[in-house]
């Protein structure tokens, strides 16, 4: 598929999953991600894969656990309220160190919330979400093309690190249409000798398990996970910087908010204001060192999110509170305009960085 | 020449189990393992074990096994079966697992006609957590969370899972058995074997409900427990083949 295809973000994730060799999808419909489950329902049978609409998000994520443990390349998707239901299974998948891809096309919350875009699942996605000390790898695309690319990257990372990987999008990215191409994306194949495939020629059974009744053993298992997370923090952070070299004010935003923030940065630059954009692509591991480096010469930082300010904590920690961190956000499915952000930029410059 | 007439099944690991004296999980494990041996599916079987007393069954069954979250074994088994439709996938679950927290997963696996075999051990109480009310607890039965006996006015009535699942088109074999004496053990084994054969023939969902004792949490000796099961549980949960649709 060398040409570019005009498609929705949700569909781009689906097609990229097929390109990545995903053969199994288990999910439950929820707006604004339903195009993805519908795409998989149509597309997977065409490539000899299996689509199954589960009775709930809880069942779906546990089907993913079973399929991943059985060695399948598997994906599920949902939106915010559905992701809350999946958290039990995600904790188990992280504990069992099974590879899978989980898509969250976020909407406004809390509770049933609405069906318009939001980014208020940041804490849930990056800080665990379920019980226990664990992390999923979280990647945050900001275009339809990147939704495709990061989906393939997500499958590769999941298999390489035996860890669930979440694609954290939002209702705007899921619904919007842009051209996407699916060629020249490397798919890494990984052997899975640990999978439960039936013993076959093996003399010992393979066991997928998350129970460790002995505290010493459970601590060892936790230590092993933490070692993997440290490796991920060292090797797998991704980010993008635009006009940060000389910037006095650095905007930090991801996903759809980064597109709006970028327009605001251009407005500011056209007025001679030295403003740059730092966009984390991996939200966990968060590109701490890169952000700390990017803001060295700046006088202040402005975090922009479709939430009440969840990423602000990671931004402040990354720069060790060395600079004032301002925040601008909208919630409930409201999307800010570039002008709203521009006005925040002006305010910060008027107070010389502010406090 | 000496011929060995009775031995541990290959599908059962040679270790002592953790089960309480008089608990019948050991018998049921053995019957499942004997069936796996006789059907020659040890190398192709994949088990899914629950949360509850039998959570450690992965240490006892000598087959590939996944341990599932509480109640989710049928969903996990579904995921495995869809990846390996040619393998034999079974769940082993208790009554809290299959008839309370995981009822939805059990009902929908059956409704889909998921080609898996469920072994459902019903002892009318929560064992591992220390003897609390189960969905299968009998009316007036005393448990840690029904200290005055189960009151139907507030806690409702016991669930008959076999009868419920037998109404679903996707369920092809549903039976309730018990293992309180050798004759019933033989019947239980026949039912378990049939439930695996239904899957092997690709016909649909199969479940065997096995009534079992919990002397520790019932506060009875193993012999008293067997008597209590016969006199109280069987009238509430009649032994029967509730569904047997072949082909």
Structural account:
The complex is a heterodimer of chains A (355) and B (247). Chain A is an alpha/beta fold and 355 residues long. Chain A contains 12 helices and 15 strands. Chain A has helices at 9-19, 34-46, 57-69, 80-96, 122-126, 144-161, 171-175, 215-235, 255-270, 288-294, 312-318, 338-350, and strands at residues 5-8, 24-27, 50-53, 74-78, 100-106, 137-139, 164-170, 177-180, 207-208, 239-242, 249-252, 275-280, 282-284, 300-305, 325-329. In chain A, the strands form 3 sheets. Chain A has a 7-stranded mixed beta sheet with strand order 3-2-4-5-7-6-13, with helices on both faces. Chain A has a 5-stranded mixed beta sheet with strand order 10-12-11-14-15, sandwiched between helices. In chain A, strand 2, helix 2 and strand 3 form a beta-alpha-beta unit. Chain A is globular and about 70 Å long. The longest helix of chain B is centred in the last third of the chain and has 19 residues, at 182-200. With 247 residues, chain B is of the alpha/beta class. Chain B has 9 helices and 7 strands; from the N terminus they run αββαβααβααβαβααβ. The model of chain B has no long low-confidence stretch (mean pLDDT 97). Chain B has helices at 25-38, 73-83, 95-101, 103-111, 152-155, 161-166, 182-200, 215-218, 222-236, and strands spanning 45-49, 64-67, 88-94, 117-122, 171-178, 205-211, 240-244. In chain B, helix 1 crosses helix 7 and helix 3 (95-101) packs across helix 4. The interface between A and B is large, with 39 and 35 residues. Strand 9 (207-208) of chain A pairs parallel with strand 2 (64-67) of chain B, so a sheet runs across the interface.
List keywords for this structure.
heterodimer, A: 355 residues, alpha/beta, five-stranded mixed sheet, 12 helices, 15 strands, 41% helix, B: 247 residues, seven-stranded mixed sheet
């Amino acid at each position: 598929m060398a040409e570019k295809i005009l498609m929705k973000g949700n569909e781009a994730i689906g097609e990229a999953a097929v390109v990545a060799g995903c053969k199994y999808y288990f999910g439950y419909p929820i707006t604004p991600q339903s195009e993805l489950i519908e795409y998989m329902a149509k597309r997977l049978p065409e490539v000899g894969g299996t689509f199954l609409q589960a009775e709930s998000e809880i069942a779906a994520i546990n089907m993913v656990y079973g399929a991943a443990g059985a060695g399948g390349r598997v994906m599920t998707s949902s939106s915010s309220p559905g992701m809350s239901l999946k958290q039990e299974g995600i904790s188990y998948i992280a504990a069992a160190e099974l590879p899978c891809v989980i898509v969250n096309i976020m909407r406004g919350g809390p509770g049933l919330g609405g069906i318009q875009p939001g980014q208020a699942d940041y804490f849930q996605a990056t800080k665990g979400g379920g019980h226990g000390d664990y992390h999923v790898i979280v990647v945050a695309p900001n275009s339809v093309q990147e939704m495709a690319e990061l989906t393939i990257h997500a499958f590769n990372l999941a298999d390489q690190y035996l860890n669930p990987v979440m694609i954290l999008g939002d209702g705007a990215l899921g619904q919007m249409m842009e051209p996407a191409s699916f060629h020249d994306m490397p798919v890494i194949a990984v052997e899975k000798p640990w999978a439960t495939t039936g013993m076959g020629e093996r003399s010992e059974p393979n066991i997928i398990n998350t129970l460790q009744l002995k505290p010493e053993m459970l601590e060892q298992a936790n230590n092993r996970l933490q070692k993997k997370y440290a490796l991920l923090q060292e090797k797998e952070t991704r980010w993008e910087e635009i006009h940060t070299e000389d910037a006095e004010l650095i905007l930090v935003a991801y996903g759809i908010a980064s597109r709006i923030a970028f327009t605001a940065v251009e407005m500011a630059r056209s007025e001679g204001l030295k403003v740059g954009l730092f966009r984390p692509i991996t939200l966990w591991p968060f590109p701490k060192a890169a952000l700390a480096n990017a803001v060295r010469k700046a006088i202040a930082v402005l975090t922009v999110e479709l939430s009440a300010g969840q990423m602000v904590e990671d931004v402040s920690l990354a720069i060790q509170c060395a600079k004032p961190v301002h925040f601008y956000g909208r919630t409930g499915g409201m999307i800010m305009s570039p002008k709203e952000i521009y006005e925040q930029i002006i305010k910060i410059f008027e107070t010389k960085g502010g406090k | 020449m000496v011929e060995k007439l009775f031995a541990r099944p290959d599908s059962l690991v040679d270790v002592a189990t953790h089960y309480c004296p008089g608990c019948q999980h050991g018998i049921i494990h053995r019957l499942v393992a004997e069936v796996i041996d006789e059907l020659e599916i040890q190398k192709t079987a994949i088990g899914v074990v629950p949360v509850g007393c039998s959570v450690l069954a992965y240490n006892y069954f000598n087959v590939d096994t996944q341990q599932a979250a509480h109640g989710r074994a049928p969903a996990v088994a579904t995921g495995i079966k869809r990846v390996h439709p040619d393998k034999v996938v079974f769940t082993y679950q208790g009554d809290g697992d299959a008839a309370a927290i995981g009822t939805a997963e059990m009902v929908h696996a059956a409704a889909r006609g998921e080609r898996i075999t469920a072994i459902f051990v019903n002892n009318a109480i929560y064992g591992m957590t220390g003897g609390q009310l189960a969905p299968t607890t009998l009316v007036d039965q005393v448990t840690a969370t029904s200290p005055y006996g189960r009151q139907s006015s507030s806690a409702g009535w016991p669930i008959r899972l076999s009868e419920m699942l037998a109404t679903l088109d996707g369920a092809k074999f549903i039976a309730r058995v018990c293992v309180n004496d050798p004759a019933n053990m033989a019947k239980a084994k026949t039912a378990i074997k049939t439930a695996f054969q239904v899957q092997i023939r690709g016909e649909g969902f199969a479940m065997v409900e096995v009534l079992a004792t919990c002397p520790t949490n019932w506060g009875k000796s193993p012999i008293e427990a067997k008597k209590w099961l016969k006199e109280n549980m069987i009238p509430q949960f009649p032994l029967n083949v509730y569904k047997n649709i072949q082909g």
